[in-house]
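Bumping with the actual sequence this time:
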Amino acid sequence: MPVPREQLWLMKPDNPLAERLGCGFWEAVPKSPGVYVFWSAAGEVLYVGKSGNLRNRLLSYRSARPQSVSRKIIRLIREVSRISWQELPDETAALLEENRLIRLHRPAFNSANKSPETYYYILLSRPAENALGLELRMSVPDGFQGDVFGAFKGHAPVRAALGALNRLLYRFSAAHNGGALPRELVRVLTPRSFTHTFDVPCDSVHRLVRDFLGGQQAGLLQLFEGPEAQAEASAGRFAQNQLQDDARSLSHFFVSRAALNALIVSRFGLRTSLLPQADCDDFRVMLSRP
């Protein structure tokens, strides 16, 4: 038989915030945008939130009752000893400060944004006139001679796009020679580093890859549509569904990551095309705001 919800509450039915903080506290809360912090009696940050109207948001906690809010909120209210707030110019600034405070304090009652999303850099090298190298890195090695792109969000989608890009380039490499893909390029997790060698200088391919990863133009995707691709698929050397999946993966990567990064650089007048990993989440937040 299910346990009645009332038996799961970890506090008395009455809300202790009004009495605990006093009338003066609620009257002083501004109606402006900002962030607020819930503190425990031991001085620990329990929760960080943001609002376009601090007074309305904090009053909603004062009036919260077990019948109308989640058990988690009730537990939070029960543990709060004091509340602080910081006024900010607008909701965007409040959201950015909320992200910063959550990453700084990692509050027990916040479930999201406790650490920045994983971001990666893609390194494009030219070890020889007729060779191209691609490498996935969490950081840029000192002294690297080549082009660096990123930071790009998310391990799985970036790794999938890199695999698709390597398979595409392999089709035009000297090692292909009409054969099937090597085993390392058909695994779910393709290599983090792979070098392609071509029969002739690869200036045009290098330019296509550089423009694609830099979010400038997606002409690289036209290589999926050429007669060579269709002939190879018909001959069974490259499955048609693999070509289609790779095309979709790279198209999505270009729109959601490469072109988005280029837009961020342009919109905010950044002096470098490389986005710092620690700031990527904040740039994406600012870009989404009017």
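The tokens above came from a reply further down the thread. The first helix runs from residue 17 to 21.
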